[in-house]
Design brief:
By secondary structure, the protein is mainly beta. The chain has a single domain, classed as Lipocalin, CATH 2.40.128. It is about 15% helix and about 50% strand. The chain is built from 2 helices and 9 strands; from the N terminus they run αββββαβββββ. A hairpin with a 4-residue loop joins strand 2 (about 40-55) and strand 3 (about 60-65). The protein starts with a helix and ends with a strand. The relative contact order is 0.20.
């Protein structure tokens, strides 16, 4: 059932609000970055599923952990097997709302500040989050952007003592998703 959460939310949105009020993408981008004294870690995932229901502000993400690409293959292997345990926890999700949705004019091009509140689930751990970002309305599309930090310890991701100097305890997350109206 968990695999179908975006479909369920979109379907409910259709029934309540109609097709023109829903924006989606399957190829959003999330970048993770950290820099520790001995190692820089960077990965990009361009297979981010996102849906935004305009009248309610409901905003959801689904990210397959194995879709993060690293420059070094060994780093990617350790990320999936030792840290995120992607076979056991194959995806990360965000379920939330844009709390100031009424301040965003989806009929007028521009860049609008947005505040998002919800629950972020990574590595089987769920925590409330509140982040600021922007929504850009342009050529009928909506681009959502945000940059924030998460603590690995909040998501029960442990760092072995042997590599504690190579991995930062905080990871910078950059989100950029361009969504189009669902027709």
């Amino acid at each position: 059932m968990k695999k179908y959460w975006i479909l369920i939310i979109i379907t409910v949105g259709f029934c309540i609000n109609g097709f023109a009020q829903t924006y989606v993408t399957k190829n959003g981008m999330i970048r993770i970055y950290s820099e520790a004294p001995l190692e820089k870690i960077e990965a990009v995932n361009r297979q981010v599923n996102t849906a935004l229901l305009v009248p309610t502000g409901d905003f959801v993400f689904k990210v397959l952990i194995k879709s993060f690409n690293f420059e070094k293959a060994l780093m990617q292997e350790h990320f999936n097997e030792n840290y995120l345990e992607s076979d056991k926890y194959p995806e990360a999700t965000f379920l939330g709302k844009i709390t100031n949705i009424k301040d965003i004019n989806f009929t007028k091009e521009g860049i609008y500040p947005a505040t998002v509140e919800g629950k972020l689930t990574i590595h089987g751990q769920t925590h409330p989050v509140k982040q600021n970002g922007t929504l850009e309305i342009k050529n009928g599309a909506v681009t959502a952007k945000s940059k924030f930090n998460i603590l690995l310890s909040d998501y029960n991701i442990s760092i072995p003592n042997t590599v504690v100097n190579k991995i930062s305890k905080s990871i910078e997350v950059t989100v950029e998703v361009m969504m189009t109206k669902l027709n």
